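User: My instructor asked us to take a sequence, write out its structure as tokens, and then describe one feature of it. I'm not sure where to start. Here is the sequence I was given:
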Amino acid sequence: QVQLVESGGGLVQAGGSLRLSCVASGLPVFAFAANSMSWYGRTPENERELVATSGSFGASAIYADAVKERFIISRDNSKKTLYLQMNSLNPDDTAVYYCGFGESWGQGTQVTVSS
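Assistant: Let's start with the prediction itself. The structure tokens for your sequence are:
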């Protein structure tokens, strides 16, 4: 069973940066590398919304319009870790961020951006 553990969230002022990490376990390195993985954000008002997706082997990346030019998704397949570099944060980015792999989800990490 795939398990995902996110970390790196916190409280930051507007304009600041954070780097989220998601470590996967319960699967071999090749299975991690060969599949796409995504970051999602959820606020109390909304369902989980897609923030960014890293394609298999990191060959491609897709971003929600709201985070283009500010967030960068990346992965270290040897460490089975997915990252989300979040720059120029604003209060609208406040959410619980989850990584997703197939039907598996982590517990989420809270990001709070103060104005």
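For the description part of your assignment, you could build on this observation: Residues 29-33 form the longest helix (5 residues). Try explaining in your own words what that tells you about the chain.
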